[in-house]
Design brief:
638 residues; mainly beta; Lipocalin; Immunoglobulin-like; eight-stranded antiparallel barrel; 1 helix; 49% strand; disordered N terminus
Length: 638
């Protein structure tokens, strides 16, 4: 039995019951006929080769209440081209979408597998199967009314194409005349294995036509067509701002955006998904908050080849030029276009493709808890990052409390509430530290213990809507100074002074990092109580400074403080002087937002402000291998 199917069946045997708790009040966000494309890659974890590649594309009709029917074509690396009906694939399935647009649908390819993702402001679903043992990208957009024609595809568009099977990524602009002509198209891109060498190609006299609301673009296929050749099917969002698709007889994925008029706006909450191909091969979905040149994001990442499945939280600066372009240096080039849609194409050797779409707006009457308003209190990681036992989280909404109040003594109130405000997580009373009409800060009960958490606010007898989110083993977030999760971490020297740019940490020095989201501990303590004199996290926690692994001597609750964890970290040799990323890694998480300044000197011996605990054994990260070229076997369609 294939690894993908085995993992899906094992997951299904343990996970389906828990998923009955998921909020489905957003099912109506998927309603009507959609064009979709999903590209799936199954890796042989022994050899590193792709053992199966599959592209599914066609139409999927959502009924608005949790079921769908599908009419699709499959191009499979072992069996070639066939319809879903010929391959015995299902003609229907189910889906569950929360009020935030976050949810999942049953896989059209593998029994028991789910495609996780989010529904954007324009009703577009983007996601990835992540937990199911294979890598993929899935996009579905409503078929526009009236049905798109040649005249719909008019003006300038930026497109990004990622061909994982052949290790090629490209980005290019097309200018359509609305009458079937794209003219000469100049492409730039990269080939896996050639590092950062830029490859160029000119596709001459490119033409297109429409059939049933989808565009068929014909790129010429000369022998020197390094980046792109042949037919591409393109599907358009209802407003025409976003486009996606790929080859009917290959396993690439193409995303695009209409060029904006004037400098486009990039800000607010976005939903994202993508594929990366470099020293690692992964696919992901998630969200990000962009504000004033700084984005804080989350990706739920599946790297099946190397056995990683984790939540990745990060921050990155951006500055959008007047033409909508910007880049994350040496990693990815982006274009923000009409409607604020953003696409990304990897910069060699870090090939990849990314799409980010504006999230819906949320509002409600009475005591209203924003369904996308559950964030890490330390890092401000967005709601798709989920929560963990003992996690300090912030809830956003309206009319959540009659006024402002803070709990100054421990244990923080639970059943009694604070200013008449109570919060439950899966029915368990959560310790409340702060309340205001628009924001509440609480601790996740240690016994939350399920795959999904249901969170609800009780404001003096008036209940809010219930919001669901996923529960992880860990969801680390480093507190920062100033607060917000970006900038210098809340890190102390051995004399309890703050680590700053003027007073940096030194190589060889052991410093204390204050954070949240490290999960359960030993000994077990009462929810909302102060940490004991010493404790130990049940989860193995690793730390990296500037990409160098740092020794972790203590990992537990911060003594005499409520809701805080502490890890003692020794700054490793090889770290460059200056600001370095402080990365905290748990068994299912990777948080790389906060910074730590490191000086040019060396501290031979220093002690963090917590008695050292017995050093825990650490597991070394797997060596990430390059992705070889496609080596198809003969998979059997379900």
């Amino acid at each position: 039995m294939k690894l993908a199917r085995l993992m899906a069946l094992l997951w299904a045997a343990t996970g389906w019951q828990a998923f009955a708790q998921w909020d489905t009040s957003g099912n109506g966000m998927l309603n009507g006929t959609y064009y979709f494309r999903e590209v799936i890659y199954v890796s042989n974890t022994s050899t590193g080769a792709l053992s199966e590649a599959t592209a599914l594309y066609g139409t999927i009709a959502f009924n608005g209440s949790g079921t769908y029917t599908i009419n699709c074509t499959v191009y499979d690396s072992g069996y070639g081209l066939f319809t879903c009906a010929q391959g015995g694939l299902p003609t229907s399935g189910t889906y569950s979408i929360a009020a935030s647009g976050y949810g999942f649908l049953s896989s059209p390819r593998y029994t028991g597998a789910l495609v996780y993702g989010l529904v954007s402001q324009q009703g577009i679903f983007i996601g990835s199967s992540t937990e199911s043992g294979f890598n993929d990208l899935f996009i579905a957009a409503p078929l526009a009314t009236p049905v798109p024609t040649n005249a719909t595809f008019k003006g300038a568009y930026w497109l990004a194409d990622m061909d994982v099977a052949n290790g090629i990524g490209s980005m290019f602009q097309v200018i359509s005349d609305g009458a079937g002509n794209l003219g000469n198209v100049s492409l730039t891109g990269y080939v896996d294995g050639d590092g950062s060498t830029v490859v160029t190609q000119t596709a001459a006299a490119v033409k297109y036509s429409f059939s049933n609301g989808a565009a068929v673009v014909a790129f010429p296929s000369p022998s020197n067509a390094t980046l792109i050749a042949g037919q591409k099917y393109l599907y358009f969002s209802p407003d025409g701002n976003f486009v996606f698709g790929g080859s009917p007889t290959s396993w690439d994925f193409l995303v695009g955006v209409r060029t904006a008029s004037g400098t486009p706006s990039f800000g607010g909450l976005y939903y994202q998904a993508g594929i990366d191909l470099a020293s690692a091969f992964d696919s992901y979905y998630g969200s990000l908050n962009a504000n004033a040149g700084l984005a804080v994001g989350h990706q739920r990442v599946a790297d099946v080849l190397d056995g990683y499945l984790y939540g990745y939280t990060y921050s990155e600066a951006y500055s959008v030029a007047s033409d909508g372009t910007y880049s994350n240096p040496s990693v990815m080039r982006y274009v923000v276009g009409a409607g604020g849609v953003r696409i990304g194409s990897g910069i060699g050797p870090y090939l990849g493709i990314n799409v980010a779409l504006p999230a819906p707006s949320f509002s409600g009457s009475g005591v209203f808890l924003n369904p996308a308003g559950i964030v890490n209190a330390a890092s401000s990681a967005p709601f798709t990052a989920g929560i963990a036992p003992g996690d300090f989280i912030t809830l956003y909404g309206v009319n959540l409390a009659p006024g402002t109040a803070t709990a100054y003594t421990v244990p923080f109130p639970t059943t009694a509430g604070l200013d008449g405000v109570q919060v439950t997580v899966n029915g368990l009373p959560a310790p409340v530290q702060f309340v205001s009409p628009g924001q509440i800060s609480v601790l996740v009960p240690y016994a939350v213990g399920s795959t999904i958490a249901r969170i609800q606010v009780n404001n003096n007898g008036v209940l809010s809507n219930a919001v669901t989110t996923f529960v992880n083993l860990t969801a680390p977030g480093v507190f920062t100074v100033p607060p917000g999760g970006v900038g210098y971490g809340a890190v102390l020297h051995g004399d309890y002074s703050l680590v700053t740019a003027q007073h940096p940490a030194q190589v060889g020095e052991t410093v204390a990092v204050y954070l949240t989201g490290l999960g359960t501990t030993n000994p077990v303590i009462t929810d909302g109580s102060a940490g004991p004199a010493s404790s130990q996290t049940n989860n193995t926690i690793q730390a990296f400074i500037g990409g160098q692994q740092a020794s972790v001597g203590y990992s537990g609750l911060a003594p005499q403080l409520a809701g805080l964890y502490q890890i003692n970290v020794t700054v490793p040799s090889g770290v460059t002087a200056g600001d370095n990323t402080l990365e905290i890694v748990g068994p299912d998480s990777d948080a790389a937002e906060a910074l730590i300044p490191v000086g040019g000197g060396v501290t031979a011996s220093a002690t963090a402000p917590q008695p050292a605990m017995r050093k825990k054994a650490k597991s070394s990260p797997s060596v990430r291998r390059p992705m070889p070229q496609l080596a198809p076997t003969n998979p059997t369609p379900r």
